[in-house]
Amino acid sequence: MRERIFIPFLVALFVFVSLNAETKDYTHYVDPFIGADGGGYVFPGVCMPYGMVKLGPDCNELTENAGWQSGTNVVGFSHTHLNGSGGGCKYGNVLFMASTGDIDLENYSSPYDQAEAQVGMFSIHLSKYDIYVRLSATEHAGFHEYTFPETQKANIFVDLGKFLASIEKQEFVGSEVRILSDTEIEGYTRVRNGWNFSKAYTVYFYAKFDTHAESLGTWKNGKAQAGVRSQSDENTKCGAWFTFNTMEKKTVKVKVGISYMGCNKARENLAEIASWDIEEPHQRSVTAWNEILSQIDVETSAEESKKIFYSSVYRIFMQPVDYSGENPMWSSDEPYYGDYHAIWDTFRATHPFINLFRPTRGGEMVQSLVNIYEHDKFMPDARSSHWSGRTQAGSNCDMLVADAYVKGIKDVDWEQALKAMIKNATVPPGDDERQYGRGGLWDYNRIGYVSTSFERGCSRTFEYSANDYAIATLAKGLGKTEIYQEFIKKASSWENLWNPNIESFGFKGFAWPRNNDGTWLDDPDFTVFSSGSFEHQFYETFSWELSFYVPHDIKRLITKMGGKEQFTKRLDSYFTITFPGKRDELLFYTKMVGLCQISNEPCFLTPSLYAYVGEPYKTARIVRQILATQYSSASDGVPGNDDSGSMGAWYAFHSLGFYPNAGQDVYLISSPVFKRATLTFENGKQMIITSINSSDKNIYIQSCKLNGKQLDRCWLRHSEIVNGGTLEFIMGPEPSTWAINGELPPSMSDSDPF
Amino acid sequence: MRERIFIPFLVALFVFVSLNAETKDYTHYVDPFIGADGGGYVFPGVCMPYGMVKLGPDCNELTENAGWQSGTNVVGFSHTHLNGSGGGCKYGNVLFMASTGDIDLENYSSPYDQAEAQVGMFSIHLSKYDIYVRLSATEHAGFHEYTFPETQKANIFVDLGKFLASIEKQEFVGSEVRILSDTEIEGYTRVRNGWNFSKAYTVYFYAKFDTHAESLGTWKNGKAQAGVRSQSDENTKCGAWFTFNTMEKKTVKVKVGISYMGCNKARENLAEIASWDIEEPHQRSVTAWNEILSQIDVETSAEESKKIFYSSVYRIFMQPVDYSGENPMWSSDEPYYGDYHAIWDTFRATHPFINLFRPTRGGEMVQSLVNIYEHDKFMPDARSSHWSGRTQAGSNCDMLVADAYVKGIKDVDWEQALKAMIKNATVPPGDDERQYGRGGLWDYNRIGYVSTSFERGCSRTFEYSANDYAIATLAKGLGKTEIYQEFIKKASSWENLWNPNIESFGFKGFAWPRNNDGTWLDDPDFTVFSSGSFEHQFYETFSWELSFYVPHDIKRLITKMGGKEQFTKRLDSYFTITFPGKRDELLFYTKMVGLCQISNEPCFLTPSLYAYVGEPYKTARIVRQILATQYSSASDGVPGNDDSGSMGAWYAFHSLGFYPNAGQDVYLISSPVFKRATLTFENGKQMIITSINSSDKNIYIQSCKLNGKQLDRCWLRHSEIVNGGTLEFIMGPEPSTWAINGELPPSMSDSDPF
Q1: Which of A102, A108, A502, B691 has an alpha carbon within 20 to 30 A of B349's alpha carbon?
Q2: B732 inside domain
Q3: Could you tell me if A192 and A317 lie in one domain?
Q4: What does the pLDDT look like over B62-92, one tens digit per residue?
Q5: Closest C-alpha to A384, from A260, A266, A258, A265
């Protein structure tokens, strides 16, 4: 067991906070409603950075992933949510609600108006009851404030039988409640399943009211029992109500401690909020978020892009959640993070963003993955409710490890991390092979690709190749030559699914499903635009798109595609062709730019690939087009599921002017949006990025200076950013020759040609 | 979801109880200490049939599997145990202890004397403190009675940081405690791992004292805090003490409700014990056990064998545990049983015994396996703490299903059961392949055997063959011809590991490890006596022994071994050769009869195999020899780990005079021990077995009449027993010609020759 080293971190934090001791409040630029509608599934409620408690409204029939659904009824306010997840719902536990009059256990939801979301405060009016609600939260506790009309029957109740449920739905397991006094209540709710097919998880709570109840009661299986203070668990749904007289004092407040350990721990967690003033948690939240947001000070006359930017950064740091001290699965002094949902989404930009601005947290996250491997068989791809599952395609936790490693992050047990990666690459996970590790591994390790005998053969093979490069990267760093050599070879496995005979729009050679006898899939209905979900050979992508996904060896990919010119033409076509495939197979057909559905992660890196052929101005054009047309500050302003801040991270990086090739020490320059951006890092260093003339029209880099010296390449090393300095861009309305003959970004084939 | 049909069961039970309304107390013949020493790991504490609470003493460093360790110190009395398990410990949760004087959190164990165990009551004297302890229990609650010396400091405390732990050890996760008043306390302890490598499980309790404490306190991480009533869980060990003044009233009683759901449920469970009189739970236990024990009334002048017999039957019904109403993993109206530990042990005799005498329970158990499959991916081989794992070799849950099916058991969803079996046979379980399902399945389904590329290749292949026959059996019954044909073929897979060139003691042809390229293992150190554990090709067996394990096709095995004469000679040798292998590879070398180590399950059926060559007198000789030499009424009177009543079931069946070939409608007659045995079944029918002249010397059957007609075969159908009647044996001191030319028991090859 490793000791967590707090002191250096605190010192660093102190230095850093001192450096950023500004009075500026960046949280004003954050609108938590951006992306809450239109399929973004952004969580609009209150939460701290990495905060366990995410307190917010659950609507309608509790069918939406983050709880919120505009224009429907509010069912109540629950304490656990994910941000931006697609697929089946998760969480929505320990739901509080207020009403007036007689208790109605069946039909207590209310239409709403005046919904307002800001950092650390959510407010709404329940029009059915004329109740004003304000919510705030600390890491492990929620604060509710209900302002009632004058009534002798002002009710606040907790419904332990409620949770979010839609497709792939969560299932109720059990609940228990105990009223301890006329101001105190505790209990738990137990739920299983959801998108990650988890076993049962238990959310405990302890709540304290500021007002004595006039009357109270509990229910079980829908049967109200006035005056009864306790309900036991026969796999039954229970709850409790407190009724107040608000003829004089109209506002009732309740603090709710949440825990995954037990009720006493929930009570201890409640103590995070000392006073009965909602401004206490609200201001704590504002301060905590400002510590992060102030690390990037941007100047621009375009207020909207500032709003989108800070809202994006905000969403990046909502997850994964720091569950340290809240691990009901094993005892360890290691950091413990959860709500990776899913790494398939977040390894690309979200975690690189965290690793750049919060490397201490980034290191803790990787170490938590290693700790999970040590206690729970494999590192996860997704993990929520303390349960790993599902894996979408590759074992992309490998990418997280490599990304942290190449970025010099500390306090990770790299030897153990390598073991965890090698387990992914060598031990089949079994059963439906969706829980963790690598499905179809038997094929991959025997014949070099995942055949059509398994699901997601093409997506898996391409992603495993990148994952194997990640393993090779760490092995090389640790001086494990044999392991390096083994996996650098396997990193070319994608070539085994490169079918040179498939042709589309004049381009030859595409990723293609292959049978385990070596023959190619021969199905007239299957095209380079065929796409599907878990059962398909292309997982949420299609051949045209996936064929560009060789992030570690674009050089080799260029050769396979017929050379630089063909590659560039193919990229051009990718961003201009109208999708001719079956539209209903794609997630967000309407959000496409050419074939690029930025609403989903598989294409995240593709706009930056022009860097590998020395045509950065094309990246600038595409990226700016996507930023301008696919994102907005409206509530549907996120192009697809935000996926734990993934859409936000893509926006945030690109508007700063660069984008990471995850797992590699490479940032590819795109087109800086802001006049000036001051990045402050945990090491106390500052990088000032200026972009003279940048505007909606002046999107092309004319020249660039790094620390005063001309930079004639369109990519940066991590050290060139994180150690501070200046990056000066001059922008213009037309493409320039900047960097077109510069050094190309590295590819695996540079040093290991096959 | 199926409704549990209670009414017919209750009617049947009523009829049955009425029929058996005897005044005779069979529990007097039960000595729970038989097998508690000498590696039997029998649990000597108190429990109801299928009872969740198993309250008993934990000794020494809490290293013994059932808690008890003769001659050491008693640490306390915990509420959860397994009976007879080997390997790593499990349970030992919610430990209560008493002391006098100042509380010593470090060193509170005590030497003991006057330990006495009977059905429903355990008593012991803690000599360090001069405290007399009596324990009793209902299904979900424990009753403790502590009689102190005259002292102002009589302490009873609960240590939530204690649990059983040795090899493959359980690990502490967390605990919480709340003192509710000077007579009430509740909390939980959370532990993970143990033999089945389980994730964390939580045991909640609520306890009520009959006496007001003079003072009390709690501790956390070894630090006592007088007067502090609550401790929260930071993955920390906590506990609490209640101190009484026993200068006048010397006896303090405490009732402890246990639950896997929550504290309120534990409180509800405590209500099972209404009074403060220990005779209440004690008598309830005696009554419940008599209901079972009275189903078999035996007459014999040998009191010791009666004692061994009823103690054996007692142990059969201690597990699996009926956890219905105590399922924290999912909600279902189905029966829910746990503490299958492990089916590899119990499918052979324990479950057939339950299926014969308690078919309603037997059906519930099978249905619970199906329900586990539906909610937890696979049926288990072993399952405890609501977690499936490990699998020792085959997916022997298949045998349980088939056994229940061929014995006409009702209320099982057979279609779903078949799906669950087919999943075992088709979907690799993954990871270490020890959790459930069939490891090495890739090989087995591709090349017909589990090669040396996997662990336990020989044991798995032979057991999978039997399991496949079980699948075929059910498929045939359900009219699924294709499935039947597929699996009846696979049931011959053992032949693929039959190496005709291996020779030993003049016999040719043995089970042998085979590589995946078809070549045989060629290792001069590997012999027909080589044996090992999970990593070995022969799991807790060796080639000589495993080569007899083709329970479904002895006819074919006889052919493979060179015909009837060779087979018989080989069996004779098996029971007479002195084991020449490495002794330390075997579990209980000293308990061998020839090569037969009855202390372990793989040979359980072998003594009965003479039936298949018409030489039943040899079975009689071997069985009687084992009963007489390997079992006794001493505390070390069980030959090996009792393994959830497995050793007991072997004894019980054979002393009645027959033994099941599990999964088949066949009981093989051995040598009845008792003068008269009256078996009463759940259907109200009675079978009276008489054995005239039976004695230690008159062990050979001279003749047999079934329902008054001569029986000239040495095996019976289930219907010939369970529908009642008479079975009359005449015994003698010499082998007879009885049944030597009778119809042989069925083999797969009778109808499906390959």
Answers
A1: B691
A2: yes
A3: no
A4: 567 899 999 999 999 999 999 999 888 999 9
A5: A260
Mark which residues 314-343 of B lie under 8 Å from A by CB.
325, 327-332
Number of domains in chain A: 2
Q: Answer yes or no: is B176 within a domain.
A: yes
- Domain containing residue A552: 294-669
Q: Which residues of B are less than 8 Å from A433 in CB distance?
A: 430
Which residue from A153, A150, A147, A146 is spatially nearest to A100, judged by alpha carbons? Answer: A153
Residue B702 in domain:
yes
Question: Residue ranges of the alpha helices (H) in B20-84?
Answer: none
CATH number of the domain where residue A383 is located: 1.20.1610.10
pTM here is 0.95
pLDDT band at B14 (very low <50, low <70, confident <90, very high): very low
pLDDT band for position B151 (cuts 50, 70, 90): very high
Q: What pLDDT does A714 receive?
A: 98
Kindly state whether residues A326 and A245 are assigned to the same domain.
no
Exposed, middle or buried: residue A336 (CB in 10 Å: 0-12, 13-18, 19+)?
Answer: buried
Mean per-residue pLDDT, B623-631: 96
* Mean pLDDT score, B18-38: 83
Q: Which positions of chain A have pLDDT values less than 50?
A: 1-22, 753-754
For residues A550 and A570, give the distance between their C-alpha atoms in angstroms, rounded to a whole number.
15
Q: Which of B334, B333, B332, B336 is nearest to B322 (CA)?
A: B336
Contact B320, B645 (CB under 8 A): no
DSSP B116-156: EEETTEEEEEETTTTEEEEEEE-SSEEEEEEE--S-S-EEE
Residue A13: per-residue pLDDT: 47
Chain Cα centroid distance, residue B570: 30
Chain-centroid distance of CA B600 in Å reads: 12
Minimal Cα distance from B326: which residue of A? A234
For A351-393, how does the pLDDT look when each residue is reduced to its tens digit (9 = 90+)?
Answer: 999 999 999 999 999 999 999 999 999 999 999 999 999 999 9
User: Which residue is listed with tokens 């090996």?
Assistant: B640
Instruction: Please determine, for residue B754, whether its predicted confidence score (pLDDT) is greater than 60.
Output: no
Note whether A261 and A303 are same-domain residues: no
Q: Identify the CATH number of the domain in which residue B154 sits.
A: 2.70.98.10
Going by C-beta distance under 8 Å and a sequence separation of 6 or more, which residues neighbour residue A326?
A52, A140, A259, A260, A261, A265, A336
- List phi, psi (to 5°) of B428: -60, 135
Nearest-CA neighbor of B653 among B236, B343, B379, B298? B298
Which chain B residues contact residue A327 at CB under 8 A?
Answer: 235
Residue among B188, B325, B431 whose CB faces A234 most closely: B325
Whether B264 sits inside 8 A of A433 (CB atoms) is no
The domain boundary, picked from A669, A697, A719, lies at: A669
> Among all residues of chain B, which has the CA nearest to that of A332?
B235
**Predicted complex: ipTM over 0.85:** yes
List the single residue in A with minimal CA-CA distance to B180.
A180
Averaged confidence pLDDT in chain B = 95
**Residue A304 sits in the same domain as residue A219:** no
State how far the Cα of B453 lies from the Cα of B131, in Å rounded to an integer: 57
Interface of B with A in 179-218 (CB under 8 A): 188, 190, 192, 199-200, 202
Out of B257, B290, B323, pick the residue that ends a domain: B290
3-state secondary structure B272-328: CCCCCCCHHHHHHHHHHHHHHHCCEEEECCCHHHHHHHHHHHHHHCCCCEECCCCCC
Contact B173 A330 (CB under 8 A): yes
For residues A440 and A330, state if they share a domain.
yes
> Does B265 contact A232 at a Cβ distance shorter than 8 Å?
yes
**Same-domain check for residues A274 and A352:** no
**pLDDT of B60 higher than 70:** yes
One domain for residues A266 and A375: no
Closest residue on chain B to A433 (Cα): B430
Clarify whether residues A266 and A378 are in a common domain: no
User: Quick check: is B29 in a domain?
Assistant: no
